[in-house]
Amino acid sequence: MANATGMALRQVRKSYGSTDVIHGIDLDVAAGEFVVFVGPSGCGKSTLLRMIAGLEEVTDGEISIGGRDVTDLDPSQRGIAMVFQSYALYPHMSVRDNLGFGLKMANTPKAEVDTRVAAAAKILKIEPLLERRPGQLSGGQRQRVAIGRAIVRKPDVFLFDEPLSNLDAELRVSMRIEIARLHKELGNTMIYVTHDQTEAMTLADKIVVLRDGRIEQVGTPREVYEHPGNIFVAGFIGSPKMNFIEGTAAEGGVAFAGRTIALGYTPAEPGTAVTIGIRPEHIEVSETGESTFSVSVDFSEYLGGTQYLYATLPDGQSLTIEHRETTEIFKNDTILVSCDTRLIKVFSATGHHLGR
Ligand code: ADP
Fold first, then answer.
1. Helix ranges restricted to H, 68-194
2. pLDDT tens digits, one per residue of 41-56
3. Has this prediction a pTM greater than 0.90?
């Protein structure tokens, strides 16, 4: 493990004029951890990352890397390297020169530059491309070079700002795996910003879900998926999105769509309005079960291994179902569905998770 360095943010704030965009973030990042900041566009992910990088001034609070207060240090003094969405390669330079340029500018001896460039090229499997220019590379190869430029600097911490957003869907998946492999191989602390919950789920040791400049939840992918603390996180993590159904709390469960479902606990004062959260993948097409509903299928999407059914409950509320069986279900079919009641979530009117 090289250079594994932890990080801490204490009450970090950012305002642009009178507009507060980051409202006091506290976060600990363990040495060698892969942390993903995820949230909708405008939630402050990039601003937070740029403050860690030193590209954006901190309005208030403290950032430390490896136990050293870096809040007022220049980016070059922080031991970080950043990879951006736009590769920003020099078009007239070869890949080799692009990789070595930063080191050369820092007066690194040529032999050392050559060694580091060769090592980075090997890690990223771009050795055959070293003499090409960026214009002769695919998008994925260019992004590899951009990552290579970060690797040659031997930073303590890697910062990634939506690095895969410019790539097509297939390349995004393969580069995602490359980045995971890179993390495993280098062992560095990495902070990665994305609006894509799949990227967050697949890459992160720790996910930080942000909304409007605040942390909504911090946890492992499994924690945020299985135990979302509120309705925002529940709706943001998971695809297709969790179903939210309006209902009421009942003695020992919840009532919705004309039925009472036993949950084994009373989530709130019976009769209180609540939102019931059920993930599409937790609903089965089944004639049996404690929580069987008849639904009508409005339309369906056939994806091969799975089928998404967009259905309506007896009370008119919508329900998305992920159907993984081979039997195809068609539009206008009426089917019986049930779900595992242990996986049902209940949220208060203010969006807080209630109960277990
Ligand atoms: P994200 O990366 O999550 O999409 P950003 O960090 O880019 O979000 O932006 C967070 C908020 O800060 C947004 O509301 C954005 O409009 C605002 N913002 C970002 N940069 C500036 C700026 N230079 N001046 C004023 N507001 C800004």
1. 95-105, 110-124, 139-152, 169-186
2. 999 999 999 999 999 9
3. yes
